[in-house]
């Protein structure tokens, strides 16, 4: 085989290898894991979760009395913003700090756990994957000390 044919073969192999490599990189980009915000269904999915949660709270004798005098429209708006922000969505949270907002309410661990159970159910209803549910809840868990016994 002449040197020039060998060179052409080598060049051809290089082109094929680069093609395989670039398609592997492209397919990786296409199969990137969706972000938590995307898995929550973005703004619309989060709004649905918050609406489901509000219904569950409203039908729960343990939690309902807590929200009797609350401006539910504002609560909804702020909770949507907050869940959007903690899941790294494109939102600003315009509500008060968790410590300020829950100060004086003396919320117990049992109430906190009940709300978390409802939030999980609210997400399950929206068919949010279990792993994404855990990811969101793990971002809210550190708020426990600001929300309870304040
Ligand atoms: C991780 C758990 C919780 C999160 C992330 C959370 C988040 C929020 C947010 C974003 C607001 C609205 C803040 C504002 O409007 O400035 C709020 C208000 C409120 N939350 Fe929570 N909350 C949690 C747990 C609880 C629990 C367990 C209770 C009671 C059982 C509760 C009772 C209230 C009440 C009564 C308000 C209205 C306060 C007011 O407007 O004066 N929260 N919460």
TrEMBL record:
Pfam families: Bac_globin. SUPFAM superfamilies: Globin-like (SSF46458). It comes from the Bacteria. Keywords: Heme, Iron, Metal-binding, Transport. This is Group 1 truncated hemoglobin. It comes from Kangiella marina.
């Amino acid at each position: 085989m002449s040197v020039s044919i060998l060179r052409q073969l080598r060049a051809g192999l290089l082109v094929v290898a680069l093609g395989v490599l670039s398609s592997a990189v492209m397919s990786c980009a296409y199969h990137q894991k969706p972000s938590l915000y995307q898995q929550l269904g973005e703004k619309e999915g989060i709004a649905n979760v918050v609406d489901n949660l509000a219904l569950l709270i409203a039908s729960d004798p343990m939690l309902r009395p807590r929200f009797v005098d609350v401006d539910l429209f504002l609560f909804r708006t702020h909770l949507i913003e907050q869940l959007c922000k903690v899941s790294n969505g494109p939102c600003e949270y315009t509500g008060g700090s968790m410590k300020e907002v829950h100060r004086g309410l003396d919320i117990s661990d049992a109430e906190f756990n009940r709300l978390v159970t409802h939030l999980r159910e609210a997400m399950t209803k929206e068919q949010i994957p279990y792993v994404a549910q855990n990811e969101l809840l793990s971002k809210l868990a550190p708020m426990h000390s600001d929300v309870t016994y304040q």
